[in-house]
TrEMBL record:
Classification via InterPro entries: YefM-like_sf
Protein name per the record: Prevent host death protein, Phd antitoxin
Record-linked SUPFAM superfamilies: YefM-like
Family stated for the protein in its record: Belongs to the phD/YefM antitoxin family.
Species the sequence originates in: hydrothermal vent metagenome
Length: 48
């Protein structure tokens, strides 16, 4: 997966929360959430 696919603005998370959770579980790749262009949180992929 490309790094650009792993970076999303907080507005995307708000609009697509269920899809984001599904993808995190299925793909196991972390997701970086940004706000005003700055990293605000890192959501890890699959749980161990």
């Amino acid at each position: 997966m490309k790094l650009s696919d792993q970076i999303k603005p907080i507005s995307y998370l708000k609009a697509h929360a269920a899809e984001v959770v599904r993808n995190l579980s299925a793909q196991g790749e972390p997701l970086i959430i940004t706000q005003n262009g700055a990293i605000r949180t890192l959501m890890p992929g699959r749980r161990c």
